[in-house]
Amino acid sequence: MTSLPQGHAPRQFLPRDLGHVPRAWGIGAAIGGALAVSALVNHRLARRAEREHPPLGRFVEVDGVRLHYLERGTGVPVVLLHGNGGMIQDFLSSGLVDRAAERHRVIVFDRPGYGYSERPRARLWTPDAQADLLAAALRRIGASGAVVLGHSWAGAVAVAMADRHPDVVRALVLEGGYFYPSVRLDVVPMSMPAVPVLGDVIRHTVAPPLARLMWPLMMRKIFGPQPEPAKFGRFPRSMAVRPSQLRASAEETAMMVPSAVGARQRYARLRLPVAIIAGDGDRMVGTEAQSGRLHRDIAQSEFRELPDTGHMVHHTATGAVLAAIERVAGTSAAAGLSTAKEADLPAAVPA
């Protein structure tokens, strides 16, 4: 055994300064405490939003999933499917529901995870999965043979419904949809609340206040080049920034590009009437690269590109969307639509 030279102390392998350890603990505790407080506040705000905006319609349970839907009017069924981040109140505040209900049986769903519809985490809620669920719900409530309108992300759901459930869908209206894969730099940050564990922390703590902070910027983007219409003030923003709804939105953002890759083969299979409508100023998706290309891939489709119009066509050109519904439903526009309401429609692009 080797002995140390006389006068030499054993070498110490401890940190020179342990003061950073309690400081780190203190910082970690402060961050944890702030996140806990934020989660509690967001939970209470979400519950308050639900008290202030109770369910508007009915519920139907399909395959263990409870869906919330609103129904008005009689006649040929018209189903309205909102985009990513939306709810029933999106179409309701636009005025499209009331106007379409004058001639049709209008059914508006909260898609899974939005509004008051459930979104079980055990499933991957692709456009196909949502199409199967919604088609089963329409059969359950006796609304087969419907005109289905899909806005934005829900355009993929509407196409999947028509392809997989032709008995349920008689015609399509596709508004401002995303149908072909593209480079989207916004997908990664907007998908973060969908990441397991870390995403749960984000959506319960920092995501709701960030969503509130970014709301005006998002409104300028989705409505531009036109201003946000006053009627959209009836949309319950407080419901849209709940942690549960932010998860649904983030999951759909993450699935957007992969879903478009997988759907390209089905467009040519469609044989039903299809009306495609979009704004030439859409800042969310490229109109020519998406709606224009889809029109070329669906031989029997019609395409209307509205000038000086953005992503929310059903708000800023409600009459144009209603007229598209009437045409694919096989209903005479002259019977219920005035010339003024049709005036915002340019001539149809030839197939």
Description:
- It contains 15 helices and 8 strands.
- It is an alpha/beta fold and 351 residues long.
- It has one domain: 3-Layer(aba) Sandwich (Rossmann fold).
- Helix 4 packs across helix 5 and helix 7 (198-204) packs across helix 10 (243-263).
**If strands are numbered along the chain, what order do they take across the biggest sheet?**
1-2-4-3-5-6-7-8
Give average pLDDT, whole number: 89
How would a textbook summarize the main sheet? 8 strands, mixed
How many extended strands? 8
CATH class: Alpha Beta
At the fold tier of CATH, the topology name is: Rossmann fold
Q: By helix and strand content, what is the structural category? A: alpha/beta
Give the N-to-C terminal Cα separation.
94 Å
Helix/strand order, N-terminal first: HEEEHHEHEHEHHHHHEHEHHHH
Spatial extent as radius of gyration: 25 Å
Number of domains: 1
**CATH homologous superfamily?**
Alpha/Beta hydrolase fold, catalytic domain
Q: Into which percent range does the helicity of residues fall?
A: 40-55%
**General form:** globular
Number of helices, where a helix is a run of at least 4 consecutive DSSP H or I residues: 15
Low-confidence stretches: 332-351
CATH architecture: 3-Layer(aba) Sandwich
Our estimate of the beta-strand percent is 5-15%
